[in-house]
Specification:
Blueprint lengths: L2 H25 L3 H5 L9 H22 L26 H20 L3 H4 L2 E5 L5 E5 H25 L18
Antiparallel strand pairs: 1-2
Helix pairs in contact: 1-4, 1-6, 3-4, 3-6
Length: about 180
């Protein structure tokens, strides 16, 4: 197994475990508190959670189209067309939480398919503005995980502002033998 494979598997583990813990904490908020516009880029906690899930499904859809041999993505609930990056997938927190859990499980299965030869391939896709982009698969996959981390950082700030401590957020704390 190569370095990129190890790193992406570590990112998937971090992503899934952090999301699980974050959703547990956010479940304790009222729906009004989750949907209150707190001035974040996507407004509310719910809006930010929705954006992360939407973006993950967009990226996985791009991977599915670019590399049609991904068995894990063949029948998955992905996003291929969207009107905006704040498009609501789910208005209900419970539905959003189920969608997140399903997508994290899909990501676990998908990273298991990422072999060196696949990671070295170039993928082409249209970005959200319709411009054609081209990257090695490993770079696009790394970006997908970095994007999640960026917006989860916004969520932890919002939670701190509301008086909640999200706990350890460092990637390295989620890796085996690092605790």
């Amino acid at each position: 197994m190569g370095t990129h494979q190890d790193q992406l598997r570590g990112f998937a583990k971090y992503n899934g475990e952090f999301n699980c813990r974050l959703y547990e904490q956010i479940a304790g908020l009222t729906d009004i508190a989750r949907k209150e516009d707190l001035g974040a880029f996507f407004g509310s906690i719910h809006g930010t959670l929705n954006h992360i899930l939407l973006a993950d499904r967009i990226w996985l859809g791009r991977f599915a189209r670019a590399i049609p041999t991904f068995r894990s993505l063949a029948t998955a609930n992905l996003v291929y067309e969207f009107s905006s990056l704040d498009q609501q997938l789910f208005d209900s927190f419970d539905e959003l939480r189920v969608g997140r859990r399903e997508t994290d499980e899909l990501i676990y299965r998908w990273v298991e398919e990422l072999e060196d030869a696949v990671l070295a391939q170039t993928m082409r896709y249209n970005n959200s503005k319709g411009h054609v982009r081209e990257h090695p698969v490993w770079l696009a996959a790394t970006h997908m995980f970095n994007h999640q981390t960026h917006h989860r950082g916004q969520l932890t700030t919002l939670l701190f502002q509301l008086g909640y401590d999200p706990g350890t957020t460092d990637y390295i704390a989620y890796l085996p033998n690092s605790r």
